[in-house]
Amino acid sequence: MKTLVVGGTGTVGPGVVRGLVDAGHDVVVAHRGETVAELPVGVSVARVDRHLDGALAELVSTVRPDAVVDLTCDDADDGRLTVAACRGVDRLLVVSSVNAAGGPLPTPVHERVTPAPVSDYGRDKLGLEQAVRDSWATGDSRALVVRLGPVYRPGSGLDGQLAEDTYWLGQALAGEPAVLADEGERYWNLLHAEDAGRAFAALLANPAAERELVLVASRRPIRWRDLYRTVHSGLGLSTRTVSAPAQWLVEQLSDDEWLQETSLWDQVYDLSLLDRLAPDYQELAGDKDLVATAAWLVDQGETGDPELIAEISGLGRTWAARDGSPTDA
């Protein structure tokens, strides 16, 4: 299958491309040329700015793919542009985000949950989904919408419980205790980008996987405290933690949106629709891949914003002094 991946060099893209290549796809990557990524041998690259008038449609006409995977649809306008550009393409997979559903949510989360996004990003992604749904109703598209969970790979970040940043790695390297909300009891969900690519390949292989919204996330959620301990141990670092009540942290943090949207509830997903539409898909990544991603971040010096590290470490010390509890080893 010849597959055009739009946005194949960003955070998610290179892993998705590798997953598709592993599944036997002949992949062409389209991007703006602003990022550099190591792609598998044999992958073709085309530069395009999807927002230039007619540029994406012209590229699709030139490449003549059997399938298009669009990783760069941010909102309803992007969705309408992609649908129009891909008329005549047999298979179209448009990637949205679990943030379109919102949070906190009752778990396990499924596709039928009533969306209540809490961030501008989530609201824009919900608008994208509605634009594609509208195209189903008019007969303009049979696109599959993937509501994708959090994704990682070496070359991307590993966000912490309290902020969308790798501050917790910086804390560990400095010997500071990790600050957990409510003992780090909540489940986080991390899917390796190559597993996402394998899931996309399995969905594209099924002609019945169309005009649907399907969740793609990890089948192995991990508690925040266990994520920290797994990575710390793999890097040869000791794990020290201090726990504060989540609500207190919400009140203290200068920016609490990440904590509110992603970390105060269990990111556990009902993936029964994915199992039905892609029965041969298997999730292969494990703890060693988390550690490898963290090791890459350490090697690159990408271990958090210093001001954020200082803020969160200060909150940990404040709560520990107030609570009178020692940090855990």
CATH superfamily of the largest domain: NAD(P)-binding Rossmann-like Domain
Backbone CA Rg: 20 Å
How many helices? The count is 12
Structural class: alpha/beta
Task: Explain this structure.
The chain is an alpha/beta fold. It folds into two domains: about 1-150 and about 190-215, NAD(P)-binding Rossmann-like Domain (Rossmann fold), CATH 3.40.50.720; about 165-190 and about 220-265 and about 285-325, UDP-galactose 4-epimerase, domain 1 (Alpha-Beta Complex). It contains twelve helices and 13 strands. The protein has helices at about 15-20, 55-65, 75-85, 120-140, 165-175, 195-205, 225-235, 245-250, 255-265, 270-275, 285-300, 305-325, and strands at about 1-5, 25-30, 45, 65-70, 90-95, 145-150, 150, 180, 185-190, 190, 215, 220-225, 240-245. Strands 3-2-1-4-5-6-11 form a seven-stranded parallel sheet, with helices on both faces. β4, α3 (about 75-85) and β5 (about 90-95) form a beta-alpha-beta unit. The longest helix is centred in the middle third of the chain and has 19 residues, at about 120-140. The radius of gyration is 20 Å and the shape is globular. The N and C termini lie far apart (about 50 Å). The mean pLDDT is about 95.
